[in-house]
Structures are given as C-alpha cells and as structure tokens.
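Fill-in record for ParB N-terminal domain-containing protein.
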Amino acid sequence: MSKSAPKVALSASRDIPFNRLVLSQANVRRIKAGIAVEELAEDIARRTLLQSLTVRPVLDEEGRETGIFEVPSGGRRYRALELLVKQKRLARTAPIPCIIRTEGIAEEDSLAENVQRAPLHPLDQFRAFQALRERGRSEEEIAAAFFVSVGVVRQRLRLAAVSPRLLDLYAEDGMTIEQLMAFTVSPDHERQEQVWEALQRSYTKEPYQIRRLLTEGAVRASDKRARFVGAEAYEAAGGLILRDLFQPDDGGWWQDAGLLDRLARERLEREAEAIRAEGWRWVETAPDFPYGHSYGLRRLSGEAQPLTEEETARRDALQAEFDRLEQECAEADEVPEETDRRLAEIEEALAAFEDRPVAYDPDEMARAGVFVSIDGSGVLRAERGYVRPEDEPPITADPEQEQVETDQPQAGAEPEGETRFEPIAGPAAPPTAPPEEDEGIRPLPDRLLTELTAHRTLALRDALAADPQTAFLAALHALCLRLFYRYGLDSCLEIEPKSALFSAQAPGLADTASARAIEARHARWLAQMPTELGELWPVLAGFDADKRLGRQKSHRDHYLRDRGLGRFVTGIYSRRQAVAAMVGILLDPEAEVVPGIRDALSDAALATLLRLRPAASGLPYARPSVLFSGADFDTDHERDARLAPVHSYIRVSHFFFAFGYPTSSRWPKR
C-alpha cells in the first residue's frame, strides 16, 4: 500500500496590533530602491494594505513568546504604516494582517520574498493603464493614483495603442522597447505593420529609421508653411499632427501635406486681397518664390513714414528708461533677472520703431506690383514696388534732340541744291577747281579725327591706370548706374554686372543667411544712392575708402566706443575682473576690417576714452595672451578703483568670426 504525499501546511495568519510590531535586523534589503516610503504610505491610505507582513515572535531567554513580533520581510510596508501612525492617520493599535513564521531562518524568508518576486512585464503595465482609461479614469487620476507624471501615463497609453501584432512581438522579445517607442509616432496600425515588414528586409532596424519611414510624406512642424497656418487652424480643418512622446520632436509632423498647402495658399490669397486694395497693378502669391525672382525688375524706392507725436514720445520714454536701467546695471555687482528681462523688452520695442511703413507714389503703384510669400520663420513677406519691363512708361525723347536728329542728312542722300556728277565713260574729263570754302573753322578729316581719338583714348587709359582710386571710383560708378538706376548708361566704361540664375535650387534658398545678407547689403547701398544720375559721381567721390567698400565708420565706432569696447572700461560688461573676451561678427572679410579697427585704436581721443595702456612695443594693442591664444589681439585698459579694487586694469582679448556664427548678446531677446 503506497503512502500519500504529505500535505503542505501554510503558516498561520492573524491581525496583530501595530504597536506590537518591531522592525527586524534580519531583513536582507539594505539599499533603498523603488518608490519612496511617503508614496507607499499614500497608496496604503488610499487602498489599504494589499500584502500582509511576514513576522516572527520575539522570545525571551526561556524561549517563551513575549507578545512582540519582529518584521523580517516587509520593512518598507512597516515604515509606511509607521509614517501613517506618526501623522495620526492610523491608530497605534490598528490591527495589521500578518503571517506568523516559526520555522526556518529569518534571513532566508526575507531573501526568498524578494528573490522569488517576479517583476511586472512593461506591456502588462501599459495594458493596465489602458484598462483604467477605458473604465473612465482620466490621465490625471491615473497619474495621481500611481505617483507618476501625466506625461508618463500618456507614454504608457500610447505604447498600449500600438498594433496588437507588434505588441505580441514585443511580449515575445521580438522587438526592443526603443523600437516599440518609435512606432508610437503614427496611430495607423496598418502603416506600422508595413514598416515592420519593410524593416525585415533591411540591414538596420534602428528606431530613427522607423520614425523616418512612418513620417515619410509628412511635414515637420518647423516648416514655414506650418508656422504660417498654425496648428489650431490645421487641426480645425481635419489635419492630424503626429507627435513623438519619447523624443524631442520640434512640434511633431503634420501628416496631410496637401491640406497644409491648401490652407497656406488660402491664407496667402486672403492677405493678397488686402494688399491689392492698396492700389497695386498686380500681386503674385506663392509659399516660396525662387531665389532671384525679382532680377531685371525695377524696384520703387518709396518713403518711410515718420513717427507720429505719440510714437515719438513713446520711443523717447523707452530710451530714457533703457538708459536709466543701463546706468543702474553699471553700478551693480549683479543684474537682477527682472531688470534683465525688462531691458530685453525695451530693446525689442525700440527696434520695432525702426521698422517704419513705406509710402509710394500712387502713379508708380499703378504700374508696379507685389510678391507675397512666406519667409523662413513663417511670417508673411510682402515685397512691394517691383515694376516689370513691359509696365515701364514709354521713353519720350527730348524735342531738341529730335530736331537735331531730323536736321542731319541721311547716309547716301544728296544735299539739297547740290548736283551729283556721275562718272562718264571714255576719256577722263579735265578736273574742275574745288569750290572756295567759307572763311572759318574747317572740319577735320575723318582719318585724322579717328587717329586723334585713338591717341586721346590711349592717354585716358594710361592716366586711369596710374590713378587706382579714380579707376576704382569709375568702376564703382558704372556698376551703380546699372544696378540702381533704370537707364544707367552715362559711363564710358563697358562694365556689365550679371547675376547667374540657378536652374535648380533647394526650397528656401532666399531665406538662407547668405541671401539675407546680400539683400540687406543691397538695400544699404540703395539708400545712399541719389535720385538724379548726374549727382551719382559727386556722391561716390564723397565716400571715404571704407564706405565705398561697404563698411561704415559707424560700425567701427560701435565696436570700439561706448556701445562696444567702452563697456568693459565702464564695467557694464565686466566688474572685478582682470581679463575678459570680446567677440566681433564680421560682415566683410577679416583682412579688410580687423586692421582698420587696430589702426583706429591709435587715435588719441579714442585712447583717452578707452583708457588704453600702450603695449611694450608702443602700439595700442598687444599680441594675444596665453589665456586666449586664439584671439586676434589684446588691449589693456585702466579701471576705476570701484570697478577693480584688486586689479587696476583689465585685459580684453578680441576675437573676430565671419557672419553666420551664433551670436550672443548680454540681453537676449525673448
């Protein structure tokens, strides 16, 4: 007769008052991990204790129970209950469900409880959050219940919403969690499965490739069309924005590119209608015109509208406030954050006063037009005042010039009242005496006139070549005539500026830093051109060499004087410092700018203003120090004792970078 297997006897359980429990030193968990005791206490208060404590009776010297029980397993639960008792949210004698162990070793029980515990699979957590959401719990309520942020809840819900087929693959370790996160970009299960199938034939299955395939054909939220339309209008029209909750996505992807294009064009047309009402002959709209689209068109100059009395008063008040705050900053050791923010606001407001609306002649507007597009930042761009060649008014000749041209005999025509003798065949007729010329200046023979003209032209060439300044001025004059005037032909130099048009170009070429710099430089030159052609040469001759090359003296003064280097001397940029660095952004080649700045430091008045200390070589600047060896040059300046109580001077290292590098200002615009 076979014996039956012994039955398993479970440990007894009963409720024990909390004040009869003590924490055991046999608990093997020493390092804190997981959620905090405070969060566990809140969870117990919300849903009571879900797991009993494992306890052992404390025996006296004779081996009898003392009525006290130690807790070798469940130490965090005990501390959470203890915290509730201290907060008077739980009675000291409250019954605590416990499992009483008398066999084995306490350390073994504690180790087994922690080692034998199977962690929850992440997918189970995702689906549990989804079940709570389907039962009517809000994202905020779920987050509060499990002590996580709302963002974490949204991430878990998005993971649970991936295609069930892909979730099963993840559960079977056929996909990594990073890959599963990438699939959450698109809610289309069919598209998700298509991408996964495509990846099986690919060498790489990186998450970035999954995101790229899922967003093919979509438009980034940073696209200028998206900024122009706005997310609210796009979603109101039924558009879907794909968002990545696990990586920075810069606003996401706008899935329906066709809808976005339609909304952008519709808004452009609405804006164009308001511009047409101004009286322009034509208005063209497009999200993006190719670079060089205005080449060959004359642009109206217009006149900037002056500030009104109210605007002038407002600007003066802002400038006075800016100067006052700037002076306070110069005297303070540290600029308060509120003052720094206010200075940035004032700078932005003052800059807005410089952007004045331009008024045009109504008669000129009747033959000119406007290009309406979207700039690189998503703002409406209206390029007003372009005249097409076919819309130019006809040229009316000078009546006196017409009379001169009419009076001149045509080639091959006989002068009136004179007889033309035809040659006669046969013996030569005797020569006839030429008619006597009237007394006065006789016309030069054509051959002699041609030879003298050649001598004069050659002499002019030699004189011009021997005078580089006049030669440069003549070339500049010829270029300005053709670039800034409608009929600029009043030059003997055959110089023709040409701009090569790009047959193929990437979208947004006109919004690049190079294109904007070229446009701004052209506008600066145009503002200096006189209205009359005859005044152009004197105006150009009045420019100094730097101005002819496009570098304004004011730029150099801005760098060196009270708005630039002078701020280190006054302490606005640096206080209590012995060394500092200054960065200049170059709009022109370094070889044409930096030497001029160094030479300007030799001016006595400027040296006094900047409190320059000459270098050992006697020059106002020195070679870079070891601290900033990459600088172009250094300058030393004496400091006021209040600004530099320890150091009586400051050394400034000067760095120069080409335009296009990231710039920084003391008060960045927000």
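KEY FINDING: The chain has 26 helices and 18 strands.
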